[in-house]
Write a structure and sequence with these properties.
By secondary structure, the protein is of the alpha+beta class. 45% of the residues lie in helices and 13% in strands. A hairpin with a 3-residue loop joins strand 10 and strand 11.
Length: 505
């Protein structure tokens, strides 16, 4: 049974890449109920906002109804998971319903997560629990409000059934919106099978969708690699500058679009430490906060390997060797692209403008010294940046109170003030600079204890009020008011010290 609900589908993936997916239907669930609906995003997509909040809308979000024009498919992809290749992953609990073109003319994927087993499920039930799906909402909407490219939650529906993980939990289905669900692992899937015609077809599709100016260019596959690498350089720098730890940076979780995807065992760092790991499955710290840029480069090297057969003119040794040289140059350039993006972000957070290459290098050293000071003082990452904006107005005491040794901040603050003086020293400029810094340094992030409290209330008691209050706070991350103060404070050290996140699959 289908209903319109305002969806105007144009399903290019199912139409053009039918060999790269499997048509499939979501599982029917007992009693759908709407737990979350993103009315602003729905309106942006041109959907019928009122109809989608009815009982029929809940049935749609749970998978019992399909919107007219949907062509649900399970996408095929591979992935390096914790460094080891899994040649056949695919959508084991997800379905791409189709694509819509939003009010801004942008093509967006509409996909279910937790909608039941597919041919790629590898023995799993394909279901999802309420807690992990609401986590996707909280973290995705927080990232969006922070200006970081991300997939977004459109809806979460309860299913009225129990799913079994470490214990029985209420089930849910997430509806996710993305620029696309093309991943590094999508390319790996066909490369490992040596299905080079399919690989070329998918690469051409990715180019047409994300880099249309490259269509038909003789070097388009190499250029695609470079575009993806540049997008990821910017994305990872944005993660680092807000203390975000993805937790499971497998190649099937790296998008070609440059959006953050899959908010499983992710978390935001509190006390600054580059070795911070929260994910319970990351036993060796492979995906620790400070490792994320290097892991991104490693993932991009896997993309380069996958694309080699189509970058080379043919598979003879001279052409393959030339292609290896070309992709190696791209991968080796990634740290430079990342560093450039990182320095721009850090300068903005420090209240600085770029004054040229020589000063940029000095600013990078200043930022490194700041981060090392945060580590030594075990200071809260988010609050330290926020209180630095106070210091820009001459109020350094809130910052000095954050660390173990108040006087430890003074030498660096003197150095920073001298750098600020290269731009402007008058009072109006100081106030303006502090205001700009407060728009770069959030006050509210998804503090782990608040996230867990909200998810526990929803899971154990069916109480969505803590989730809704937290979500409202996360949507205004740069606002600092007395009402938001509980969301701006870190958890007690005893809570943070033993905190772990879990995958939720």
């Amino acid at each position: 049974m289908t209903q319109a609900f305002g969806f105007q589908f144009d399903n290019s993936y199912a139409r053009e890449l039918s060999d790269c997916c499997v048509p499939w239907q979501p599982a029917v669930v007992p009693t759908p109920s709407l737990l979350f609906f993103n009315d602003t995003l729905a309106d942006e997509l041109g959907l019928d906002v009122a109809a989608l909040q009815t009982a029929q809308g809940a049935a749609l979000w749970a998978g019992n109804l399909l919107p007219a024009g949907a062509q649900p498919v399970a996408q095929a992809y591979a992935g390096h998971q914790f460094g080891r290749l899994s040649p056949r992953l695919g959508d084991g609990r997800a379905l791409l319903l189709g694509e819509v073109v939003d009010r801004h003319g942008v093509r967006r994927d509409i996909a279910f997560k937790g909608s039941g087993a597919t041919p790629f499920s590898r023995g799993g039930d394909g279901k999802a629990a309420v807690g992990p799906m609401l986590r996707e909402v909280l973290i995705g909407e927080a990232m969006h409000a922070l200006g970081i490219p991300t997939t977004r939650a459109l809806a979460v529906a309860g299913t009225g059934e129990q799913v079994y993980r470490e214990r029985a939990m209420p089930g849910a289905v997430l509806t996710r919106v993305a620029a696309s669900h093309l991943r590094v692992g999508t390319m790996e899937y066909f490369a490992v099978r040596r299905e080079y015609d399919h690989l070329r077809k998918v690469a051409d599709y990715a180019i047409a969708r994300h880099d249309p100016d490259l269509v038909g260019e003789p070097t388009r596959y190499l250029d695609l690699l470079q575009r993806v690498a540049r997008r990821q350089a910017v994305l990872i720098s944005q993660w680092m500058n807000v203390g975000f730890i993805h937790g499971v940076m497998n190649t099937d979780n790296m998008t070609l679009s440059g959006e953050t995807i899959d908010y499983g065992p992710c978390a935001f760092m509190e006390a600054y430490n580059p070795q911070t790991v929260f994910s319970s499955i990351d036993q060796g710290g492979r995906y620790a906060y400070g490792n994320q840029p290097a892991i991104a480069q490693w993932n991009l090297a896997r993309l380069a390997e996958a694309l080699l057969p189509v970058i080379a003119e043919d598979l003879t040794e001279p052409h393959i060797n030339r292609a290896i040289e070309q992709v190696t140059a791209v991968i080796e350039a990634f740290p430079e692209w990342y560093q450039a993006a990182q320095v721009r972000g850090l300068q903005a957070k420090l209240g600085l403008s770029s004054l040229g290459p020589e000063q940029d290098a000095a600013d990078a050293e200043l930022a490194d010294a700041w981060l090392d000071l945060l580590r030594q003082q075990e200071a809260d990452f988010t609050l330290a940046w926020r209180r630095l904006a106070d210091a820009a107005e001459g109020q350094a005491q809130p910052l000095r109170a954050l660390g173990r040794e108040p006087e430890a901040w003074d030498a660096w603050l003197t150095r920073w003030q001298a750098r600020l003086a290269l731009e402007s020293t008058d009072d109006m400029a100081r106030v303006a600079r502090a205001g700009q810094m407060r728009q770069r340094n959030p006050y509210v992030i998804p503090r782990n204890h608040h996230v867990e409290d909200a998810l526990a209330a929803a899971t154990n008691d069916g109480n969505l009020a803590p989730f809704e209050r937290l979500l409202a706070a996360l949507r205004t991350p740069y606002l600092e008011t007395p009402e938001l103060a509980p969301y701006g404070e870190p958890a007690p050290a005893a809570v943070t010290a033993c905190y772990q996140t879990f995958c939720g699959t």
